[in-house]
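Hello, quick one for you while I still have it in my head. A protein chain has come my way and I'm curious about its shape. I'm sending you its amino acid sequence along with the backbone structure tokens. I'd be grateful if you could look everything over and explain what you see. Here's the protein in full, and shout if anything looks odd to you:
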Amino acid sequence: MTAPAAAGLSAADLTAVADRMAAAGVAVAGPLEARLIAGGRSNLTFRLDDGAAAWVLRMPPRLGRTPSAHDVAREYRVTSALAAAGVPVARPVTLCEDEAVIGLPFAVAEFVEGRTVQSRADLEQLDDATVESTTGRLVETLAALHDLDHVAVGLERFGRPDGYAARQLRRWSGQWELVGDPALEPLAGELAGRLGAVTFDQRSTGVVHGDYRIDNTILSFAPDGPAVEAVVDWELSTIGDPVADVAMMCVYRHEALDLVLGFATAWTSDRLPSPDELAEAYVSAGGVPLQDWDQHLALGYFKLAVIAAGIDHRYRAGAAHGEGFDTAAQAVQPLLEQGLARV
């Protein structure tokens, strides 16, 4: 069924997308059909089908956009480099930054077969041994990403190599000014102020995903064990401090993530390792030493609080598609408080 215009793509849009794909050398067998894939809280994700093959299209929402929060071009560029380096990603097909084509920039990638584990119900389909081994693969994949030579794969100019935490604090403080609840400004201001007084000692540099957890991967489950077929949602990626990436993975284990995403998520389940256990597993898998760990956790809680506020901002602007957007505002205060407890 073709997605209605209200969901983000009209029939004319899909024709324009098909033309762009054809120009990139991808043969489209027939008229494209699109289905909105649930779960996105920033960019919209559609599955495209022509009756013979499938792709994925990513684009920002049409309303409630905030600067740098929906960067499909950035996502396309990093995955292009990582795919060539053998990192498990959805191989990019085409990028269109000309907003005159469908009203927004968009990117198309190959569709990766596999399973996503997003909800608590999805996780319940896996036995304890599979959950344990899957978590191990996730941590190993992140450690391998951080070990990649970003200069050698062509990402030298993808981000500044130093001062990552300070830049993140400036970025998310600026986002808070756009989307934050004035009633929570004292909490947010205190946390940002404390973080601003911290001197982060960045000792390693690499590709940072920025949004790493189980539901941002596509998995396969074979008799010899699970595998990560693709890591997805690279819109927050950059070159920076890998410690911050590990910290965000652990911050997402907080129960407030259920409020941010609007459902009982797999990643907050008590069947998964605790944040401390995840951090230990990452180091054991060959990851970088976790320097300034508590400070990075505090920065992660601030970031997630601002993300939650941004989701609520788009919800109130009428730009949310799907269910579960009405609880994000409830996550902001506990996340700010948790950050204050850590810094």
Summary: The chain has two domains: 5-110, 120-342. Residues 1-6 have pLDDT under 50 and may be disordered.
